[in-house]
Amino acid sequence: MSNDYISSFFDNIKDKTTNPFFGTLIFVWLVRNWDLVYTIFNFDSDCTLLDKKDFIRNYYAEKVAWQEIGYNIIIAFGVMLLSYGLIIISRLVVNVTNHNIIPRMNEKTVSKLVVNKNRFETVKKTRDEYFIRIQEIEEQVVTLEQKNTLLKKQNIEDTERINGLNKTIERHESNSIESMSKISDFKSKLDDTEKDLAFSKIVLLKSEETIKKNNKDLTDLYNLIFGFLDQKFETLKVSPYQEFDIPLEIKDVYSNLHKNSSDLQDFDAVFFDVGRHLTGETKDRASFISHYIDKYIDLGLVANNGKNEKHKGLGGNLELTALGSIVFNSQELYELFKEFNII
């Protein structure tokens, strides 16, 4: 805490002494009371401390304190005004000399290579600013060159990519041309096919009309024949077998085939299938029920040449008998008798 007081005391003294007024006041007091100061700091052997005290008492006894203070203050203000006036005058003289007289003298006496300092400073400042701007521009140029290099690289890559795409487009165009050619050929073939199809439809329609007409004519012919036969059988009142003069053996076979068809399913139709296989009209392999074959053998239609060996299906040991061949070849007549219930 004592250090704070001491520091504050010295700071106060420093502020007062550095203040122009107090400094001037102290200076004036020292000048007007120089003998007092001299006596205080005089350390001669013949001058004792008591002598100094008596001198100080007598010195201030002859003077009025407030008058002395007032005189010192007035003189201090006067000295301050005088000193500041001198400072202003000296600064004015210096400025006029530096900025008017010396430049004019330099213009007339010094070489033209020498310039004014202010102009020099201005030019130097401008030059430094230009240098800074040039450095900034150089940095920008470097940055732009780097960007330009990068853009060139990208441009090369884009160019290569575009060339690749152009080649792909050309290849697709070539393929497209080939495809269009194939499509054109296909359309041409399709047109020809459509024309052939249309012609075939016309031919088919004509064929259908012809078939319908032939079927109608055939139906009319069948009706005419069957009507004629019915009238003839009815008129003659004789047996159909007598009319056609059919042998008795064949009559019996016709009757047995038709009669057994009611007991054995499709007995007569199976016989004609067997006949086609045995005569070679049908090359397809087939297998028939054995008791049908046995029945045909019993009727004398089929013969077994296998020395009494049991036949298997349609083996190579079977063949049509003479009676069986006659019945097989007269299937149409059998079917006609069957249809008109003559059998």
Automatic annotation (TrEMBL):
Keywords: Coiled coil, Membrane, Transmembrane, Transmembrane helix. Residues 127-154 form a coiled coil. The chain crosses the membrane at residues 21-41, 69-94. This is Uncharacterized protein. It comes from Flavobacterium resistens.
